[in-house]
Amino acid sequence: MTRPNTPFLSSRRGLLRAGAGLGAAAALPGLAQAQDFAGRTIEFVIPFAEAGGSDVWARFMAPFLAKHLPGKPNVIVRNVPGGGSITGTNTFYQRARPDGLSFIGTSGSTQFPYLLGDPRVRYDYTRMIPTYVSPTGGVVYLPKSLGIENVSQLARLRDRELVYGSQGATSLDLVPMLAFRLLGLNVRHVFGMRGRGEGRLGLMRGEITIDYQTSSAYITQVMPMVQAGTAVPMFSWGVLDGQGNVQRDPSFPDLPHFVEAFEMVNGSKPSGVEYDAYLAFFASGFAGQKPAMLPHGTPDNIVAAYRKAFSDAVADPELQARKGDVLGEYKQAVGDDVQAVYRVATTIKPEAREWVRNFLATNHNVRF
Amino acid sequence: MIDLFFATLGNLLTLQHMGYMLAGVSLGLVIGVLPGVGGIAGLSLLLPFLYGMNETSALAMLIGLLAIVPTADTFTSILMGIPGSSASQATVLDGFPLARQGQAARALSAAFAASMIGGLFGALLLTFAVLVASPIILAFGTAELFMLTLFGLSMVGVLSGANMVKGIASACLGLGFGLVGAAPATSEYRMDFGLLYLSDGIPLVTVALGIFALPEILDLLRGGGAIAQGAPLGRGWYRGVRDTMANIWLTLRCSGIGALVGAIPGIGGSVVDWVAYGHVVQTSKDKSQFGKGDIRGVIAPESANNATSAGALLPTLLFGIPGSGSMAIFLAAMILLGIQPGPSMAAENLGVTYTIIWSLAIANVIGTAMCILLAPGIAKLTAVRYALIAPFMIMVICFAAFQATRSFADLMALLAMGILGIFLRRFGWSRPAFLIGFVLALGGERYLYQAVQFYGWGFVTRPLVLVIAAIIVISIWAGLRGTKGGSSIHTEGSAEFSVARNMTPQIIFSGVVLAGFGFAIQQGLGVSFLAQIFPIAVGVVGGAATLLLLVQQARGPAAAGSANFDGEAQAGDGGPWRFLLWFIGFMVSVGLVGFFAALVGFFMVFLRVIARSSWVQAVALTAGAGGLMLVLANALNLVFPGGLLQEYLDLPWPFR
């Protein structure tokens, strides 16, 4: 299948978007001055149901955004669930007006089908305007019973089959699937898990022999197992710095990140089309997992107001005091950092995309 | 530990915390009474208020709401024959016949007493279980969970209606509908007609309301009068409590079943009421009154469903794994409050856990008292002409249905399931069996596949698997002893009045179902091996049962025996179609002008034409209904499903 709005045509799209933005700004002279949302209600659209990571993230951010947007508007969360987040995002992309009164927060589960070229996707990330990107992370760990003490011994496992509980080949668990492959591990992916918690429970029962948990679940659920001597941490996924390089996760500074783990296991730096594919989905699923975007054509002054509001919200001492597990220790991408992280999280090299599609079609019966 | 236990009680018993709990209980009461709207919507309503709230107050409020929903949802189950939420579907089977016999007061008070005992039992159990439950939860691996879904399916034996073959076919039909969408093993789409809407599967609320509520509403409309045929409420408040006390062991057993099923993540609370119902039938000597108004049929599911909340808290608190939809939202609420569930909930954070337990116990008592106080008022509705109530019921089930994706497609799904429900009811296809199949379909497929992946086929020799297998055998035997060719419970009305002379409509319906099973097989053949096992197995078993049924039916009205069932056999009023057309008309106008405008129009026209209301009454009722919708939608930040008009025009809320 082919789609006209492929993500790697970003330069031409960027020009179009700039043009559209200029046109909209010219058409709305009254909005050309500083934006004021006093007395308005702004919708933070979340294409997922209540509960779950994206909903909690949006509900946590909404009051702080309201506090820092000009005019202190009322910011409400509007859940538009269905179709694994494709439905709500399609609708927003096609319907939302560029007036700053609605914006959307998506997740890796929304980005992946777009990167894979799912024909049901009608949205184009290159045309939406990012105002804030929230990262997350995770840690891969093993049960102690495998006899592996740290990541440098990981290669010893190559001649035995490990079992991983996956939520699906095209879900966020695509990232560990590609990572394990790069490390040369022989992993059987058992699908149908509903959330990472079931994978962890499976590992505790002995059904599963390799697992990862997102940071907050790792800290509260797995660290007690590590202390009790039943689990061993291997590596974190890491985070992206401003230049798009993988760095250690600030929540786990003592753990190597995936690229370090790769070097320890293989003795060289990762490269090639498989690694490009991994990096794209890692960026989309972790380092740039949750972007908040305005519709295409939103005037520049509104975009500027949003970027500043998110910047101020993240700097708000009250947010910093309360962020806990919702944002974790991660550096939130605001202001000038937004564009770079967003671009890495929503683009993939054409040949890497083709490779992943082939890989999924051949090994896991995924049909595009 | 005991000091802490009572210190948390002291901490909770302040004016502020109890005030918030009362607020939660009051909202939960309203939410529970509205059919189809349950804990998920209720907790969603509270989420926006959590920001900046005191932790204890917030927990008291959330638990207050959760605790009362399975008590308050009894009202519509007993009084209207419409399940108030997925937790009290089974209550309908005996509760509604009791209400129609003028024994609503007795049924309600028995249900409330059972609910309260179940809730308190659950809270007490949780107090100790939170310290020791981890190994028990971990003992249930995928193999054991698969066996538990089989155990759930074995309840079909009790709930199959007059004809066992038809009951099995009904369960297979439900399984087939449950398999629509992505296959757990491969994420391939089956039976989805290429629709994005169906890729997530059909929502449970939509199925339950379509199958149970819509046919009941249309049927009551046909009856013309009020729900209660005799005295509207009757006496018997004390008798109901005495009924529960006389069956105290049953109540406690069912509470235990509820807590256990709730505590095992993966099975969920949607089947617990059926399991409890099946249990009471299996353990009763005299089964003749079940389905016709046996008070034990009310006590069993109601004691189980309140204990389920307590059970479901265990995996949520200890492992951060929600056992049900409302637990998922409770988990989100805890994270927003800055509480991260995990093993610490039984150690450093034990105080939080005890706050939750005390809230659960106190809210159950307060909630039961409020339900009893309000019962006489609410029960008066059964004396009101049903034509005045029907539009409210239609409005609320539509509202509940479009919570799923907030779109017009939800209403279309409701209509489709409603039409199926009408035929299932008419031809004596057990709707409970259908629903059990639907609920357990994906779980069964997922756990079978995972168990085989993890353990190979040798999983069947695991000790706990064998224990559950033995329980299944005993339970089927207990359910069938002393009955011939079918269960004693007539889930779809009395078989004696449903013997038809003209078999054609039944045969056509059986043929359509057979074609449906053929479609499931055809779709199964189109996907890879791991995704095709279940659809093909369901298609083959269901198809074979339907064929057998068709053979029986083809023998003619008399020879077909219990296979001959047509609820319309004696009807002289042309069936429910006239009222179904009203519903379809409402759907069409939603498609044209959007939900809210269509609702106002539908109310006015229906009340004037069918209910023959005066203008004053029609306007007042319409305004009341519209007001209720606006308050709820506003609190949930909801945009009503739009129609063609909204495609072209940008209207202000609520018409947007």
Automatic annotation (TrEMBL), chain A:
Gene3D superfamilies: Bordetella uptake gene, domain 1 (3.40.190.150), Periplasmic binding protein-like II (3.40.190.10). It comes from the Bacteria. Belongs to the UPF0065 (bug) family. Pfam families: TctC. Keywords: Signal. This is Tricarboxylate transporter. Residues 1-34 form the signal peptide.
Automatic annotation (TrEMBL), chain B:
Keywords: Membrane, Transmembrane, Transmembrane helix. This is Tripartite tricarboxylate transporter permease. Pfam families: TctA (PF01970). The chain crosses the membrane at residues 20-47, 59-84, 104-133, 145-162, 168-186, 193-214, 317-339, 351-378, 384-402, 433-452, 464-483, 503-521, 533-551, 579-607, 619-640. Residues 19-435 form the DUF112 domain. InterPro entries: DUF112_TM. It comes from the Bacteria.
